Amino acid sequence: MKKKSALRYLRYKNLTNELAKYGYEYTLKKAFITYGMIVLMAAIFGLLYKLELKYIAAIGIIGFLFSPMVTIQIIKGRYHTTMFSLANSYMEQFLYSFKRNGTVLSALLETAAIFDEGMFHDILEKSIEHIQYTTDSEDPEREALNMIGEFFNCERIDNIHDFVIAAQRRGGDVSGSITLLTKNRAMWAERVSNLQKEFQLVKRNITIALVATLLICILPLYLLGGKLNISSMQLCQMSAVVLIGSCMLIYVKSDKKLCRSWIEKETNSTGIGKKYIQVRDYDEAKEAKVSKKIAVIAAVLFISGFLYFKNIVIAVVGIVVVLFFLNQHKIGHNLAKKKVAKEIEKQFPNWLMEVALLLQTDNVQVAIRKSIDNSPEVLLYALENLVDELEENPNSIEPYHRFLKEYRNPDVQSAMKILYSLSSGNAGDVTKQVEELIDRNNALMDKAEKLSQEDKIAGMKVYILLPSLLASFKLMVDMSLLLVVFLKNLNFGM
Questions:
Q1: What are phi and psi of 11, to 5 degrees?
Q2: What is the chain's alpha carbon radius of gyration, rounded to the nearest angstrom?
């Protein structure tokens, strides 16, 4: 799908329609206030940097181009925060109501009484009416819950819905499993709240870095005056516009990265499945031959260079490069394996949770087979192989032992042992064992999502460093101009 240009939001109608998706009414009055603030901001920068009118206008135009995205991101940020709070409250109330009443309809009726106004209340009412009055559907409860699932687009809510549908069909006491799901929700809510605080801290630090950059770069215009005044020079003025425009761009880009949904499903487009295949099918002997060929070519080139130039540096560099090429296949394999192992650590708990919920109605082998449809890319090939092995040896423990064994992840191996116990009928109380599986998975998911959050925060911190590079650029230009002016004045004085 072709990505639409952000410039389309310069049209008032397009911007209004986009903001309406997030429940915000953008009026002409609000638009005039926004553009008035842009003019004021341009005037303030113009006065501070002693800019000519044309350069003040250039800053105003840049601000005008960026203003729709800033407005959208502010409203989206509020919307995503509200949706997270709403989803968290819904999951808590719905699980509590289902635990008390035991049916989807009763749980929805009780939940609708809590959320008694707004768009979400309307969705709940439609879901309830669908269950009560639909006569031509085989599964009205599932369809009703899908309406709510589509409203949130949250994997956790979908998992809870899958669980309650299965529990209602199966019957029996599910209070233990619901307690563990509630614990999982609470841990998730705490992680997201912590991530929100981290993102706010990063945003604050980026803003401080940008403001500090703009203030520091003003100093050369005021510290030196008289004959050393450079503020009226065209290069000084143009570099100021570049600096201010770049600071705006960094703010908009970083804000876009920080403005994210806290609940929506994330699409997996990393291509990690291909890397898993690359690691799985690694042939060291074959790759070593390729490395030797490359190393021989490099050795010939460096030996020729050393004999021609008689330079010891060429020999030393050549030895290092040749050794690297001889071992590049091992280095590449180890890096790929580490990346796959980290992705498995993140994604395995999500898959395990789905299996645990499927176990409410299916046996282990059927649950694993069904889980393939929604499995993470990094686990897909290993799961297909596991299913094939279980079809050949359904009662053997070996397929469970061999699953991702090469990655030596104790959490994975421990979970697979529990699944084997359930499949072989040696687990004793099956309900208790499933609850233990969910409880163990809660800890795994907490660990995995903390790793994912660390990656997101680390990726944002680069924006804190960019303003210092801009400041260096501007100060270098100004110092160069000061030097030119100083030398000219020195010549005139002689």
A1: -75, 130
A2: 31
Alpha carbon of 464 to those of 201, 283, 369, 461: distances in Å? Answer: 11, 43, 46, 5
What confidence score (pLDDT) does residue 71 get? 93
Whether 304 and 316 have beta carbons less than 8 Å apart is answered as no
Q: Extract the residue ranges of the chain whose pLDDT is less than 50.
A: 1-2, 269, 494
Tell me which residue of 274, 319, 282 sits closest to 301, measured CA to CA: 319
Based on DSSP, count helices (H) and strands (E) in the chain, helices before strands. 19, 0
Mind listing the pLDDT tens digit for each residue in 343-397?
888 788 878 877 877 777 778 899 899 889 878 889 999 999 999 999 998 889 9
Distance CA 386, CA 32 (A): 62
Q: 284-342 pLDDT, tens per residue? A: 899 999 999 999 998 999 899 888 888 888 888 889 989 999 999 888 889 999 989 88
- What is the pTM for the complete model shown? 0.74
Specify whether the CB–CB gap between 411 and 444 falls below 8 A: yes
Quick check: 230 and 481 in contact, CB under 8 A? Answer: yes
Secondary structure class of 200 (helix, strand, coil): helix
- What is residue 2's predicted lDDT score, i.e. its pLDDT? 47
The sign of the torsion formed by the CA atoms of 65, 66, 69, 74 equals negative
414-421 own/partner pairs: CB under 8 Å, 24+ apart: 414/440, 415/348, 415/352, 415/440, 415/441, 415/444, 419/355, 419/364, 419/368, 420/364
Which stretches of 430-461 are DSSP H helices?
430-460
Q: Within 10 A of 247 (CB to CB), how many other CB atoms are there?
A: 22
CA terminus-to-terminus distance, the chain: 68
- pLDDT for res 148: 95
Among 211, 207, 209, residue whose Cα is nearest residue 258: 207
User: Which is nearest to 292 in space by CA: 304, 281, 284?
Assistant: 284
- Inter-residue contact 398 to 144 (CB < 8 Å): no
Those residues whose C-beta lies under 8 Å from the C-beta of residue 446, and which sit 6 or more positions away, are 187, 191
Q: Give the closest residue to 17 by CA, choosing from 29, 9, 28.
A: 9
Contacts of 73 (CB under 8 A, 6+ apart): 252, 255, 256, 259
Please return the burial class of 490, using the count of CB atoms within 10 Å of its CB with bins 0-12, 13-18 and 19+.
exposed
Q: What value, to the nearest 5°, has the Cα angle with vertex 146 and ends 21 and 161?
A: 120
Q: What's residue 1's pLDDT?
A: 41
Distance set, CA 489 to CA 50, 193, 221, 226, 249 (Å): 22, 60, 17, 11, 38
Amino acid at 88: N
Give Dmax (Cα) for the chain: 101
Predicted pLDDT at 127: 94
Residue 302, CA atoms < 13 Å, CB-side half-sphere: 18
The 3 state secondary structure assigned to 397-417 is CHHHHHCCHHHCCHHHHHHHH
Contact present, 395 and 384 (Cβ < 8 Å): no
Would you state the pLDDT for residue 19?
A: 92
